[in-house]
Amino acid sequence: MKSKIAVFTSTRAEYGLLRNLCKLLDSEKLFQLIIIVTGTHLEDEYGYTCDQIKKDGFSNLEFIHLSIKGDKNAAEITAELITKISKFFEDFNPDFLIVLGDRYEALGAVYSAFLKKIKIIHLHGGEVTFGSLDNGFRNAISQLANLHFTSLEKHTKNLLNMGVNKKNIFTVGPMIKDLLNCHESITHSQFEKKLNFKFDKFNIILTFHPESYIYDYGLEKLKNIFRVILELEANVLITYPNIDEGGEIIKTALIRFSERNSDRCFLYKSLGSDLYISSLKLFDVVIGNSSSGIIEAPLIGIPSLNIGERQKGRSTFGKVSNLDGSYKEMYESLKKIKEGKTPLSQPRNLQIERKLPSYEIIKILKEIIN
């Protein structure tokens, strides 16, 4: 008899990390996979990224629409999700629920699953981000989970310190390694054609999310970034922020800046995981406060400037410069990168990994189930 496994995804970044694992689960005779698709995946405002999941060819998809427009806050969205996903759990009755990371939507799914005695598998637990509410969401998920797959031994130790049983924790590495391993590089000209982007002498990727504990959600820091970009005459690729508290404020600022500087600024609701990895291989620097600047960027080798407190405490996977968000500090750092950079004639190359997280997870799940 097949074990029923539900995989939860509510954001573009989350799905990119889960994609290869989902494909492996779907190909295994031992498992019956269903992917729960919700959150910004189903919103035009954020790129309707469920289209990518559909294109990947999964046969069992459950769409849960949430009312995330208007003035709905995270608590209201989570409450709506719990109500709707509980009904799904009753109908499908999965043996396992897989969630990744630290989103409040994921916590809502886990809370419902826990009450229904569904075994919970948590990926990327034990990590730390003191500057974000996500830190509490992540730890709460870990406390409710039955199995844990971490990205570093350090994160495994953090879980042990939280009282998690050692036999239920497995260190498999960051899930992004799966995507990096199978990613096909494209050229600068191909990237330009796909996104209607225009490369110049200095090209920046900007991803900025609201800072939970700052009165202006980090808006002043973002304005300093805008100023530096214009001073250095850089072309910039900008992606939308998450739907966290303060997200609309940050998004509005990004839209206005892009509209006023449309010759140099290119704003996208979502790139999708493949094109985002392509950008990391082709651009000169990443700036902002996304976890991708802490994990993906250093693994690929692109210079990364982490701004502010949002990712404070998170372990890096290579060299990352942590800046406070002042104009002077950011200007000097970006100017140094601009003046010292070597022009990229080809995308950055990556070393192929033999031991990939998704394969390790499948192997362990088979052993547990059998």
From TrEMBL:
Gene3D superfamilies on file: Glycogen Phosphorylase B
SUPFAM superfamilies: UDP-Glycosyltransferase/glycogen phosphorylase
The enzyme's E.C. designation: 5.1.3.14
Single GO BP term: UDP-N-acetylglucosamine metabolic process
Domain UDP-N-acetylglucosamine 2-epimerase per the UniProt entry, residue ranges: 25-347
The keyword Isomerase belongs to this UniProt entry's keyword annotation: yes
Keyword Cell inner membrane: no
Keywords from the UniProt entry: Isomerase
InterPro entries per UniProt: UDP-GlcNAc_Epase, UDP_GlcNAc_Epimerase_2_dom, WecB-like
Protein name: UDP-N-acetylglucosamine 2-epimerase
Protein species of origin: Prochlorococcus marinus (strain MIT 9301)
Taxonomic lineage of the native organism: Bacteria, Bacillati, Cyanobacteriota, Cyanophyceae, Synechococcales
